[in-house]
Write a structure and sequence with these properties.
About 40% of the residues lie in helices and about 20% in strands. With about 300 residues, it is α/β, with parallel strands linked by helices. The longest helix is centred in the middle third of the chain and has 18 residues, at about 180-200. The radius of gyration is 20 Å and the shape is globular. The protein binds adenosine-5'-diphosphate and magnesium ion.
Length: about 300
């Protein structure tokens, strides 16, 4: 298992080094190191609560890490002030779990908003750009609808059109297929693939849905216990998934996750943890972290 880039890999556009994030003294991320290369789609996977969204939020500068560094497009975002951070943020787009559209605005207005906020373009030009963005996600004919009038999949598409508004170099997705039926989910995956090919955009996708992960990933990273267990090309993960049970514990753990098996090292670890807590009379509820920082979205 190696996370060394292939010999002709381009320079990383995102460089995460030894990232540590603690909530209430508990390290959710405990030394994460990874690179994202130009034009690739990196899928970050892991069990729920393992810190995927936290990692993404730190990459986009919503959270500051306790230790480590994040370099995006050549800038260490942990050292930037708000103004510097906003300049970098203009160069990437974000699609959150909810789509995060403004319900009081039409799709056209939702997509126009970041362009109006960040450019001095005249309304006619903005209107053309908005049409192009909506066309990219297949929603041009729905420009005058409100979010409440469209389906969940269309809301994701509209959120994506807005994320594309400022021609980002990097797109961040947090669980893009969450809450969608399998067909709509596959359509969103196809859209992610198309955008990556058509626009050459670099994509970082957080998901725990394996079908989706295997469809869209060039490389995959598996998070566990605050660290990356493996970062490798998709083919290596496919091989792990389809191979017989390996002797190596980490490989067995990844395999169970990828296959969604009910039995394996993840289950064994979970059961032994609960048992240990029971013996120590330390209920999980008492140790559950209370949110101390509010996410911006
Ligand atoms: N703002 C916060 N304050 C305190 N704890 C948090 C905060 N955000 C996330 N956590 C905790 O960090 C852990 C990882 O959360 P998250 O990154 O959302 O996981 P994932 O996206 O992998 O499901 C969870 O235990 C969660 O409760
Ligand atoms: Mg999450």
């Amino acid at each position: 298992m190696s996370d060394a880039p292939a010999p002709h890999q381009p320079e990383p556009v995102i460089r995460v080094r030894d990232l540590v994030k603690r909530f209430d003294g508990r390290a959710v991320l405990d030394g994460v190191t990874l690179d994202v290369f130009a034009g690739e789609t990196l899928v970050i996977m892991g069990g729920s609560g393992c810190g995927k969204s936290t990692l993404l939020r730190m990459m986009i500068g919503s959270f500051q890490p306790d230790e480590g560094s994040i370099e995006i497009l050549g800038q260490d975002t942990t050292k930037l002030d708000e103004e510097g951070l906003n300049a970098v943020r203009k160069r990437f787009g974000i699609l959150f779990q909810s789509g995060a559209l403004f319900n009081s605005m039409t799709l056209r207005e939702n997509v126009a908003l970041p362009i109006e906020e960040h450019t001095g373009l005249d309304p006619h030009t903005i209107d053309i750009i908005v049409k192009i963005k909506l066309e990219l996600v297949g929603l041009r004919e729905h420009a005058d609808k409100y979010p409440a009038q469209i389906s969940g999949g269309m809301k994701k598409r509209a959120g994506l059109a807005r994320a594309l508004a400022l021609d980002p170099q990097i797109l961040f997705y947090d669980e893009p297929s969450a809450g969608l039926d399998p067909v709509t989910s596959a359509e969103i995956d196809q859209l992610i693939i198309n955008l990556s090919r058509q626009l050459g955009v670099t994509s970082v996708v957080v998901t725990h849905e394996m079908d989706s992960a295997f469809r869209i990933a060039d490389r995959m990273a598996m998070l566990d216990k605050g660290r990356t267990l493996l970062i490798a090309p998709r083919s290596e993960f496919e091989h792990l998934r389809d191979a017989p049970t390996p002797d190596d514990l980490n490989a067995a753990l990844i395999r169970q996750f990828l296959r969604g098996d009910a039995e394996g090292p993840i289950t064994a670890r979970r059961q032994s943890t609960v048992y240990a807590e029971d013996l120590l009379e330390e209920p999980a509820a008492r140790r559950a972290p209370t949110p101390s920082v509010r996410a911006t979205r």
